[in-house]
């Protein structure tokens, strides 16, 4: 039977752990998964709370906040380096601390992966914790990408969120899996080198899924596995910092993963679209958002010189359509 390391990355989230760990513990059978909390240098009482309330949950404490990317990279490197302490696993599952899981969620995901060796990454259906009959912004029912490489979801296009009426209840191949919760084969994680730490946070899961596809792996959504996401646990959706990371990292993953013959042309078009968005923010009086886009472009220009381009072992066709016409 395949086993999964279910890893929560925590940073000053004692209140979220207290709220969401009970259902995770209840619905994660020990024969299928092992819950591990990696702590990103929290200064609250998270570690003390875990030691007192959940002494059997394994903990990986870090000396400081390494972000989403660095935190998970260090967590899985620690796990594979010390199998006597943490165990050996077929799959890794990244799970946000602000997620409520449901009965059977892990069995649905690992069972799907067991039956489909061509699939390297899969994700559950992500619903809103507050409006549980609606999809959640971060992931919904599988991530897609448009011809200008703007991410969107089945069930969420830009800010338009659909009600879940079973319209996406069939497993489907998608472009990316949400960092809110996704499962990846442990061998694939280490073969790809984990998450790109230059991203720090946001878009890193899309970059990982893109690299997986370029390596010949498939990404799927498994809607029979259902979770509820609170959202905004680290950065709220309207944060200028989050906007900056999204714009910068979107360009970084395009630089990394687009083929040589079209990379510069597509990035130029995309930066023009971003510039139009920045001007719209300025005209609406959202000066902080305007500055976020400008800073994202400035930092991208600095960082792109050091980007390593992903080998195109299994080329990925350019997507069709645009979020602006959906």
Q: Keywords, please?
A:
326 residues, alpha/beta, nine-stranded mixed sheet, two-stranded antiparallel ribbon, 38% helix, globular
Walk me through this protein's architecture.
This protein is an alpha/beta fold and 326 residues long. The protein has a domain at 240-325. The protein is built from 10 helices and 13 strands. It has helices spanning 14-26, 46-53, 67-81, 83-86, 105-115, 186-192, 204-214, 240-257, 263-283, 287-303; strands at residues 4-10, 33-39, 58-61, 91-95, 99-101, 119-128, 143-145, 151-153, 156-157, 160-161, 172-173, 181-185, 218-229. The strands form 3 sheets. Strands 1, 2, 3, 4, 5, 6, 11, 12 and 13 form a 9-stranded mixed β-sheet that branches. α9 (263-283) runs antiparallel to α10. The chain is globular and about 50 Å long. The model has no long low-confidence stretch (mean pLDDT 96).
Uncertain ranges: none
Radius of gyration equals 19 Å
In terms of DSSP E residues, the strand content is 15-25%
Helix content: 25-40%
Shape: globular
The total strand number stands at: 13
Q: What oligomeric state do these chains adopt?
A: single chain
SSE topology string = EHEHEHHEEHEEEEEEEHHEHHH
Structural class given helices, strands, pairing?
alpha/beta
The end-to-end distance, rounded to whole angstroms, is 42 Å
Q: Specify the number of helices.
A: 10
